[in-house]
Every structure is written in structure tokens, then in C-alpha cells.
Write a structure and sequence with these properties.
The chain has 167 residues and is an alpha+beta fold. Helices cover 25% and strands 33% of the residues.
């Protein structure tokens, strides 16, 4: 998946999205930046959910995607099956300099496509009350708010859970 794209802080180029591995150096760097940003936004103990296991994004169970602009890593995201019908979006991140240029929209569309390939009929996700840009992205992509689920029930004060029917 590649398309011409221009982002502030980056020269015009081609945005590509491909599968990655949780152990890849570029993925580790992006996830470290995501974790640092979330820790600043949500310093409360237990407010962050950083866990994603390699088996959850293994072939047939999920996918980890990395977005690159002219080869430079600018974003990532994952999808994992929760059950036969439901998949969860995890670890969505776009580097600040690349935000507002469509990377997040492209990643989200690619993750939705991966979820469909896994035969999921519903996508769920959790984001936070202090991430207005993420909330706007998800709502513009057809996600609606739902009550907290799973591990996010314990952080309902700062968590916003959402879903989208895709099947």
C-alpha cells in the first residue's frame, strides 16, 4: 500500500504501510515514543495499558503495521482478535511531526482491512479522555463510544472505549 503524501516536517513522498514485527528496531522506537507520550498525558498509576504480546499479532490472530514516509517510520498500529467476531485496535501512534497528514487515517483503514481478513465483524478500541485528536480520528472513521470493557473497566475515568461494526 503506497500513496504520494506530504506531511509537515517531512518532504513530499510516498506513504507505505506494511506488516512489522514487535521486535523490529523501528517498531520498538515508535512504541517507546507512544509509551512516553501516554505516561506524560496519564501519570496516574494504572492508567496506561502498554501490553501487546507477539502471539496476539501473529498470522491468523492479528497484525502489527508500520507506516513509513519515504522509508522513514512515522507510525504504527496493531489489531488482535479477541474472539471469533471481535478484533481490537491497539498501539496506534503517529509521530507528532507526521500528525494531521493522513497517516492515522491510512493506518486505521489498513488495520480495519486486516480485521476483516481475520473475519472480525466488529472492531473495538480504547483511547483516552486526554487524546482529543485520537477521539476525533476514530469518530470520523465511524467508531461510536461504548461502555468500558475488559481491562479498561478499571480505568473508566480516563478511558474511552469505542466500537465499529465492519461485517
Amino acid at each position: 500500500m503506497a500513496e504520494p503524501h506530504t506531511l509537515d516536517g517531512y518532504t513530499p513522498g510516498v506513504l507505505s504501510i506494511s506488516r512489522g514485527d514487535l521486535g523490529d528496531e523501528d517498531v520498538l522506537a515508535l512504541i517507546a515514543e507512544l509509551n512516553a507520550e501516554l505516561a506524560l498525558r496519564y501519570p496516574e498509576p494504572g492508567a496506561n495499558h502498554f501490553r501487546l504480546d507477539p502471539d496476539e499479532v501473529a498470522a491468523g490472530r492479528g497484525a502489527l503495521l508500520i507506516a513509513r514516509l519515504d522509508g522513514a517510520p512515522v507510525g504504527c498500529g496493531a489489531v488482535r482478535l479477541l474472539d471469533g467476531d471481535t478484533a481490537e485496535i491497539k498501539r496506534m501512534f503517529t509521530r507528532p511531526a507526521a500528525r494531521g497528514g493522513g497517516v492515522g487515517r491510512a493506518l486505521l483503514a489498513a488495520l480495519e482491512s486486516e480485521a476483516r481478513a481475520l473475519t472480525a465483524r466488529r472492531l473495538v478500541l480504547e483511547t483516552g479522555t486526554r487524546q482529543q485528536e485520537a477521539l476525533a480520528l476514530y469518530e470520523s472513521h465511524g467508531f461510536a463510544r461504548i461502555p468500558p470493557f475488559g481491562e479498561y473497566i478499571a480505568t473508566a475515568d480516563t478511558s474511552v472505549c469505542m466500537q465499529k461494526n465492519i461485517g
